[in-house]
Amino acid sequence: MASAAASAVRVARPAAMDKLVSVMNEIAPRCLAGSWDNVGELISPSGARTFATPARIFVTNDLTEKVVDEAVAKEADIIVTYHPTPFRKFNKLHHGSHISRVVLACAAHGIGVYSPHTSLDCAPGGLNDWLASAVGAGAVAPITPDERVPGAGEGRVTTLSEPASLTEVVRRVKAHLKLDHVRVAVRMDAAWEAKCSGAEAAGAAADSVTVRSAAVCAGSGGSVLSTGAGRSADVWLTGEMSHHELLTAVQAGTSVILTDHTNTERGYLPELARRIEEGMGGDAVCVVTELDADPLVVM
């Protein structure tokens, strides 16, 4: 009886999930992820589920409850979420926790979940290379190279082909990320010279700052940008930094552009979806979320 029950549970695993895991490891090798991170296959799909042909892969930045509902409505077989959900270890699955509700919903619908997170940040052609293209053309290199994979590593530093004003770099960043607003901290010496005490004065100070190099790191990048080649860059671009990290940077002569955390990440989703489809070779179609958005808005 026990043997029959076990065989009933051990149903065939969908081949599309195995192929997706392989493709994602080519796009973003898991060995590049931070030791603290939770990347790879987070939730296995139900073997009892019949995947579509081609399989439907749903791509999102964050896996919230509303995004799970969207994925279910779009009949997703697999969800690729940039930020891992679940992230931390847990001892219970109960409806009092939104993380548990997400996990239970995916399991109930037999949907597999995969997250690349920091492995995608570090990978060549990954998120930080895409973000580096926001500041302008030039020579790009990792801030902290990872010798295991050529071209991989934490963050990116760009030596611009042609110097540009900080105002121009801000304009490029807003256009690349499709944002109406970013927050800018002008390096302290330029701010004082312009008697910077408001947006208009800050704009004048930004006009006076020449950018020859820019360091970028998606998400919360203060700890990465302040190391290696990032320390000497004229400007840093990231999603968020602490107040004290920001003060240290501008007093050391580095200007900072902040976009809010996920605004440095979400714009890469269409490119990730394209690369997944290409790697899957006709065995999957990708759909990018329409509901996922940064929780912070300008009011």
Automatic annotation (TrEMBL):
Keywords annotated in UniProt: Metal-binding
A GO CC term attached to the entry: mitochondrion
Superkingdom to which the source organism belongs: Eukaryota
Any one GO molecular-function label of the UniProt entry: metal ion binding
Residues involved in a divalent metal cation binding: 83, 121, 261, 265
Pfam families, A to Z: DUF34_NIF3
Family statement: Belongs to the GTP cyclohydrolase I type 2/NIF3 family.
Protein known as: NIF3-like protein 1
